[in-house]
Specification:
- With 90 residues, the protein is of the alpha+beta class.
- It has one domain (5-79).
- It is built from three helices and three strands; from the N terminus they run αβαββα.
- Helix 1 (5-21) packs across helix 3 (68-80).
- The radius of gyration is 13 Å and the shape is globular.
- The two termini are 16 Å apart.
Length: 90
């Protein structure tokens, strides 16, 4: 499934709200087509958003493995917004 900029922004907003409701907060570093789409550098759809790092105490740490709270919230958002099975793969 291809994701447009508006869909990606909406999904990330919902993800952030869900995480906040659950008492979690994550700052992530994204690359690739999804990252460029969010920055407005490209306008073509993408299939994913590649997370390479988390920001913890002003330091970059590997996003692998994703924290279980973040992964579960991403799966829940993907299902709720019908984004497809690959929404929370890594």
């Amino acid at each position: 499934m291809d994701i447009q900029s508006i869909d990606l922004e909406r999904a990330l907003k919902v993800l952030g709200e869900l995480l906040a409701d659950r008492g979690h907060y994550y700052e992530v570093v994204a690359i690739g087509g999804g990252g460029l789409l969010l920055l407005g550098q490209i306008d073509r759809p993408t299939k994913d958003l590649d997370l390479i790092a988390l920001v913890e105490a002003e330091q970059l740490v590997s996003a692998i493995p994703l924290p279980m709270n973040l992964l579960q919230a991403a799966v829940d958002v993907g299902r709720a917004l019908e984004l497809g099975e690959g929404w929370a793969e890594y």
